[in-house]
Design a protein that fits this description.
glycosidase, TIM Barrel, 27% helix, two-stranded antiparallel ribbon, single chain, alpha/beta, eight-stranded mixed beta barrel
Length: 257
């Protein structure tokens, strides 16, 4: 990774204070996604820490961020945004269409994501996602957000249903989704089954991921004007030209990773 991320990594590493605790999912409070991790006290990151002239960076948002002041956010314009579209087989994010259209108005590269539930099948969840998520030319590829729950199903079920979701997206769109997860989830459930089909978006607040990642969620404590509270900071692993190679295209020629 280029030296351009050194300042961010230093700030995060210097401020870490590890304690054993339970972690609740970053933006989806109602999910109560809890599992044992080494919880750390995250420092507040601002736009000055990102060095936007050198780094390709973005954020992810959902209804949890409530009403965003888009005029103010546009002055700090991230390179990309991922926006929650759906969850499970029935839920659709109430802020999705507004967030999606406002981001596109400001020429921010935008992608849509689905928060996976282990209470229903992958194909049915993919269909829910496809029923609401926008997929226009020059959007970022869709995202499958998968995270540990307090009580996980058997491994065979997890692998089967995630595969069903991924294959359904590919069959309908001609593109494999990006997969968001932490490194431990990737090693346990995905490493032997993805077959390099899906690009990875890894969350790791302690250190740079050691796997082959496309996006890295470095912290959940980014502070931007126009957004209430904190938001997640995500870095792209490459220059902006490479990010443009990961855009959705309406074509019959299916991508091969």
């Amino acid at each position: 990774m280029p030296k351009r991320l050194i300042s961010i990594i230093f700030i995060i590493t210097f401020s870490l204070l590890a304690v054993s605790a339970k972690r609740t999912h970053k933006t989806h409070k109602k999910h109560k996604t809890i599992h044992r991790v080494q919880r750390v006290q995250q420092p507040t990151i601002t736009l000055n820490d990102i060095n936007p002239l050198e780094n390709v960076w973005g954020i992810d948002v959902s209804h949890y961020q409530s009403d965003i002041d888009w005029e103010m956010l546009g002055k700090q314009k991230p390179n990309f945004m991922f926006i929650k579209a759906s969850e499970g087989i029935n839920n659709q994010d109430t802020k999705y269409l507004t967030n999606y259209s406002e981001a596109r108005k400001r020429r921010i590269l935008v992608g849509s994501y689905h928060f996976f539930s282990f209470k229903s099948g992958g194909k049915e969840q993919a269909n829910n996602f496809l029923s609401v998520a926008q997929h226009k030319d020059s959007d970022l590829l869709p995202v499958l957000d998968v995270e540990f729950r307090k009580k996980m199903p058997k491994k065979d079920f997890v692998v089967t249903e995630l595969t069903n979701f991924i294959n359904t997206i590919y069959e309908k769109l001609g593109h494999y989704p990006i997969v968001y997860c932490n490194y431990r989830f990737y090693k346990l459930y995905l490493q032997e089954n993805l077959n390099e089909k899906c690009k990875l978006w890894i969350v790791n607040y302690q250190e740079k991921p050691t796997c082959d990642w496309a996006f890295w969620q470095t912290t959940d404590h980014l502070k931007l004007e126009g957004i209430r509270g904190y938001v997640d900071l995500n870095m792209f692993n490459g220059p902006i030209a490479s990010l443009h190679e990961m855009l959705y295209r309406t074509t019959n020629n299916k991508l091969k990773f």
